[in-house]
Specification:
2 helices, about 10% helix, mainly beta, three-stranded antiparallel β-sheet, Rieske Iron-sulfur Protein
């Protein structure tokens, strides 16, 4: 007995298989009508995100606070710019993270705001690993 489409759209958890996502690639899924970016980060992207002086960020947050311990290669964020709600583009901008073409907000590979008018980092939705290759969002 599965929930109907309206229940799912209202916020039922979704499961996502991570196994087909290659290193350096990201996918977009939808949960509660919102785009969710799931990025399989490279070691270089992780190292760059961790090397940032957190105190220099407009919305200070360490990379390890934005990912699950033991699964640092996976970044899961809501793909809605925190400025005015536009949809940023992945793997764009000065930090190889996300770029919002509407007003120029630039996020790094941890989804943290680095330049532009957005006041806060991209939001990390509630999620958990149900196995090494599958997450549940919501």
């Amino acid at each position: 007995m599965n929930p109907d489409a309206s229940t799912i759209a209202a916020g039922a958890p979704i499961e996502v298989d991570l196994s087909p996502i290659a290193e350096g690639q990201d996918i977009k899924v939808f949960w509660r009508g919102k785009p969710i970016y799931i990025s399989h980060r490279t070691k270089k992207q992780i190292d760059e995100a961790r090397a940032v002086n957190v105190a220099s960020l407009p919305d200070p947050q360490a990379d390890d606070a934005r990912v699950k311990s033991g699964h640092e290669q996976w970044l899961v964020v809501i793909g809605i710019c925190t400025h005015l709600g536009c949809i940023p583009i992945a793997h764009e901008g000065s930090y190889d993270g996300f770029f919002c073409p509407c007003h120029g907000s630039v996020y790094d590979t941890s989804g943290r705001i680095r330049q532009g008018p957005a006041p806060t980092n991209l939001v990390v939705p509630p999620y958990q690993f149900v196995s090494d290759t599958k997450i549940q969002i919501g």
